[in-house]
Structure formats: C-alpha cells, structure tokens
Amino acid sequence: MSKVLIIGAGGVGQVVVHKCAQHPSVFSEIMLASRTKSKCDKIAAGIEAKYGVNIKTAKIDAEDVPALTRLMKRFKPKMVINVALPYQDLTIMDACLEAGVHYLDTANYEPKEVAKFEYSWQWAYQERFKKAGLMAVLGCGFDPGVTNVYTAYAAKHHFDEIHYLDIVDANAGSHGKAFATNFNPEINIREITQNGKYYENGQWIEIPPHSLMKPLNYPEVGPKNSYVIFHEELESLVKHFPTLKRARFWMTFGDEYLTHLRVIQNIGMAGIEPIDFKGKKIIPLEFLKAVLPNPGDLGENYTGFTSIGCRIRGIKNGKEQTYYVYNNCSHKAAYDETGTQGVSYTTGVPAMIGAMMMLTGEWKGAGVWNIEQLNPDPFMKKLNEYGLPWHELHNVDLEI
Ligand code: NDP
Q1: Whose CA is nearest to atom 32 of ligand 1?
Q2: CATH number belonging to the domain at 2-138, selected among 3.40.50.720, 1.25.60.10, 3.90.1150.10, 3.40.50.150
Q3: CB-facing half-sphere around the CA of 240: CA atoms within 13 A
Q4: Which of 182, 219, 360, 372 has a CB 3.0–4.6 Å from the CB of 152, allowing a cystine?
C-alpha cells in the first residue's frame, strides 16, 4: 500500500495512471501532476468513471525544484514515476533527494539546448541516492526498458555469454495521418535525426543518419525496412554486459515518413536554435510540435501492431545459440483499454510494472540503476499478466 506521484500527463502518463489504478492494492493513492492541470483532470475523470478510483491532480513545473519538493512533502509519495520529458529528469531527481522519495523514469536526461542524450548526467547521482538510501531506476519504458530486461533475462537463462545483440523496433501500425510521430514529436525528431551509432569490438561506430538499412522480418507483421539508429539502452547494456562484441538498434521507417523527415530538416523545421519571428523568439521544432498531430490523439483509428524485441547470439555450454524474444502490441487493444495508442501503452505498462517491483520490494537497493542490473524474472512474469505478453524463438535465423 503506497502513495505514488506520477509526473507528466501525456500519452504515456495516461497509460501509467490507468495501469496503476488497476492495482489499488499496490498503488493505494495516486496523484497525477503536470504542467497543464486540465490534462491531469481529464485523465482523472476518465479513471474515476472507468474504475471508480479517485486520482488527485496538481499543477507543477517539474523544473522548479523547490515547488516540486513542496508538492512531494505535502503528498508524501513513496515514489515518483517520471513520464514528463527527458529535460526534467535531473530536477525531478533533485526534488526526490530533497523530499526522500524513490524515482523511476522512461527516458534518459537530455539538455534542451543540445540534441544529445546519454546516461552520464544521471549516473552522476549514484552517490547521492546511495547516501540518501533511495532507489532511482532509469529507463523503464519499452525501449529502453523491456529491451533491457529481455537482454538480462536472456543472459541469465539462455546463455553463458552473450556476444551479439540487435534490438529491433517495428511500428507496423497505421494512424491514417500523412505524418505524425508516436510520442512527443520534439523528443522523437531530435532522436531519429541524429547520426546512427552502434557498438562493435569495444568501439562506438558513428554513421550518417539512416545510412544502414536491412529489410527484417517481424513475426506476424512481415518484412519491414529497418534502419540502424542510436538508442540510449545501448550505452548501459554494453557497460553491464561486457561480453558483448556488437550491439545495435534497428527501427523501421516507411519511405513516406523518411521523405517528410528529410523535408522537415531541409527547410529548417527541425532546428532547436531560437529564431526571430514577428518580434518573438521561437524554436522551429517547438513550433512544428504545435502543428503536428498530438500523439495522444492518434489512438482512435490506429490499426496494426508494434513489434519490438531482442535478437541475441552467444554461447551456451560451448555451443553457439540464437534467441529472439519479442512482444507484438495491438494499437487497437491498447486504445480500447486506455484510450491511447500502442507506443504510449508499451511505454506506460513497463513503467507501472517497474514501480510495482520497487514498491513490493522485488527490486530494492539504494543508488541509481539501469534495469538490466535488477532481477528480470518477476518483471517478465508481470509483462505476461499486465498486457505485454512476450514470445521466444530459439535457434532461428536472426537475419542480422
Ligand atoms: P507528451 O509530450 O505526450 O507528454 C509529456 C507530458 O509532460 C505533458 O503532459 C507535458 O505537459 C508534461 N511536461 C512537459 N514539461 C513539463 C514540466 N516542465 N513540468 C511538468 N510537466 C511537464 O510525451 P509522451 O507521453 O509521449 O512521453 C513521455 C515520456 O516518455 C518522454 O520522456 C518520452 O521520451 C518517454 N518515452 C519513452 C519510451 C520508451 O520506450 N522508453 C517510448 C516513448 C516515450 P503539457 O501537457 O503542458 O505539455
């Protein structure tokens, strides 16, 4: 029985609140706080109508550490689930330390002014969380998140050493819009327009964006053009699994999507430097976000599946083995349950399960953790129970 504070009332926040409300024996009191309180109130009203669970709401600027600390001291949550934006990770961690509250997020810190994400800023909180006796769990969405747990589970149960890891992420859904992103457009476009980067033989290899492509076959989805991009879990996975000789992340993009992206970049709309517009400073990418479809509203007519998994090659009992573990998530089923599409769902469900692991003591320990460092078994069990069942294939052609 614990109080939880959820920060961020976007698509992912909506799913987290739904899933926590389904488990009142663990999440006995829930507060949803975000920059725009009306969004919290709308989600809370939906939950009240559906489950009869009361959700408290609050307006908060998560970059204002004193205000956030005051909110935490008033509500007294056991932990915070941070599903605001990566820009707020550090200020929320600061407030957790001030108020003595455990922390979990789904995306690593990224400074607003540079499109660059890495764990160094959050790993630097290790000693402070240890000293405070508090636990901070980083990257507990799907990818990062479930992909880290899949890797840990494979390493624990199916291999003596893992050597090759390919994380494959297909969104084989259709939302009927000419162009839309599946989560916050600003964060998404910053991520996928960066150079690609993968790890091989102890080195990071950088390649131009979308320059390495393979058509990969996804179960029940079929072949999809998949591109190597850099993704944050690669950084922690190669650190925690030093036997890895190579680690890559593949994401599917349709030709139409890539054409839109190229145009957006070529005309300067992906820019993050402020420009003068009618006497005001605006950031082109923030303006673009305002005119693009809201990812939270894509759900209603979304068809198809997401298909995300880990393809792993390594050694067991002296013999080479391959292993593929994955989940396919239906956009429609996600929408019917929570009112949002599959990408928010696949992020919000693991965030709730991670919080449940912490509150029930399955995961414990002071300090800052990436989730592959924690026991994967109870988490894997809950994935099957709470909406993201996984499947495994042994000794198949991984195609990569
Ligand atoms: P949205 O943009 O839909 O929602 C973000 C929410 O955070 C909004 O409610 C926004 O408020 C709020 N917010 C922004 N700034 C502040 C602030 N300063 N103080 C308080 N609240 C603030 O994003 P998503 O729901 O799509 O994504 C949420 C998080 O999940 C992101 O960090 C994203 O990177 C991560 N993610 C992780 C994935 C994974 O698999 N690991 C996959 C997809 C997303 P307002 O409504 O006023 O704008």
Answers
A1: 85
A2: 3.40.50.720
A3: 18
A4: 372
